[in-house]
Amino acid sequence: MANPGAKNGNGHRNGSSNNGYLETLEGEEALAIIRRNLKSSAMDSEGTHFDGNFPHVFVVFGASGDLAKKKIYPTLWWLYRDNLLPSATKFFGYARSKLSVDELKEKCRPYMKVESDQQEKFEEFWALNYYVAGSYDGRRDFELLNQELCKFEVGKVANRLFYLALPPSVFETVTVHIRNTCMGQKGWNRVIVEKPFGRDADSSNALSNHLSKLFTEEQLYRIDHYLGKEMVQNLMTIRFGNQIFSPTWNRNNVASVLITFKEPFGTQGRGGYFDDFGIIRDVMQNHLLQILSLVAMEKPATCHPDDIRNEKVKVLKSMEPLTKDDVVLGQYVANPNGQDQDSRMGYLDDPTVPKDSVTPTYALAVVKINNERWDGVPFILRCGKALNERKAEVRIQYQDVPGDIFDGKPKRNELVIRVQPGEALYVKMMTKSPGITFDMEETELDLTYGHRYKDVKLPDAYERLILDVFCGSQMHFVRSDELSEAWRIFTPLLHYIERERPEPIKYVYGSRGPKEADRKCDENNFKYYGSYKWQPKL
Ligand code: NDP
Ligand code: BG6
User: Fold this and answer.
1) Would you place residue 11 in the very low, low, confident or very high pLDDT band (cuts 50, 70, 90)?
2) Is 287 among the catalytic positions?
3) Ligand 1: does its nearest atom lie under 6 Å from the Cβ of 415?
4) 40: which of 160, 228, 409, 468 is 20 to 30 A away, CA to CA?
């Protein structure tokens, strides 16, 4: 797959070759290149570069909040530490709390991973940081912020990035104020938006309409951080860069597809937020559906972001909305023998969760794709909190071998794409048992990243995605029509749950989830044998 960054020839989108090039040019020649670059950034979103040494300001709205301290500032620091950002980038925090940069630094420090020899660089990073306290609804405060930003935009060109790490309640007013008072006049403006993108089809469409009145689709970057994960990005390459898989990727060969997300912890006393959303909105409607569309879409005409997203939308359009018969819903209860306090607390024991909550913390949904490639193949999405392990994976299970000559011994092949932890891709297959015997056994072709790519440091999902925004690549961001299709599929089910309040099936904290979910897999052509034994390499 064409990697926007690979064009530098050094595997990073750090713009260094671009910078170096521009530095050697002077006067009109340099300006011509600048204009060409700006024009191409504005017109196409392929994002093959960023604008080298020009000033960039990165504004974090909601800078005092949880997401900012746990994800955004640490990511900005890692990108800065690894010299991946344009050299003249300044960082602005904006929030209501009155904080100094030092206080902000203290809040973020526990999440920033600073090695002992990086201390100097770390201080350098914070010296590029500024903080402005202001309200979310006062135009004057945004005008003052804009004045601060302008001070750093020396020269003819300057670009602005706005990261909205904000609660939905202030989202609309903040975006209006950005549009009216904070848009930079000397270069591009890009707005990064975090979920939730509404809570059903209507609210999401209202939000999309609101945003589309303020910004163009090219200026909007809707983050689904699963699209920044190595193995999710690898799906395109695995599928379309290997003749071995492509011809079998269809209803003639595949029995079922299982896409799983598991977390081994519960709400940890912060269920108040979760309870309003539930696991379907939190993980399934976005992360798992995004993975599904990359697994199921047709081959795009090119690797251009819009060609890819056109195919993703097309496959989503082939799916019927889910009904109650397609799903298994669960909610975890305390494990009396749990090893820690969290596991001895059920979901309803969380003091921030209403005692009669029926919000699912586990969900399995069987999705059907009504097109020529996938007709009749169940795509099973499963996700849950407080389960037995942390895991995200895609499992393509192939059909039984037709015309079996081995007395029913062959087990189905599986291609497993392990997203996390421990990125891996393995094919479960049958082999003759080594030795004198003519028996057979299950084994695997195994590409474990930890072995094959020992010294490669895989970037965090947010690192890739924020860098993509600098580069103007929308390939790994959600387009508004994808979003509206995703809500079309899930809204009737979500409304049914809210209206009818079906009782979720209880499962014990630390278990694999409700037994009914395994039954549903079984009914949908996913076979579990329980006989496969993996021998990890030492
Ligand atoms: P298995 O056949 O053991 O499991 C297959 C699937 O069945 C999984 O989704 C599994 O977990 C599910 N399952 C487990 N128990 C049941 C049950 N009682 N009823 C129904 N379904 C069940 O094969 P795996 O591919 O999972 O491999 C086994 C182990 O080996 C895994 O930990 C895997 O990560 C590891 N492995 C790692 C490799 C690597 O890193 N390179 C290569 C090969 C294997 P669940 O439903 O709980 O998600
Ligand atoms: C978020 C969900 O989008 O993804 C969280 O809101 C979940 O509930 C998280 O824990 C999982 O992300 P990751 O990258 O840790 O798998």
Assistant:
1) very low
2) yes
3) no
4) 228
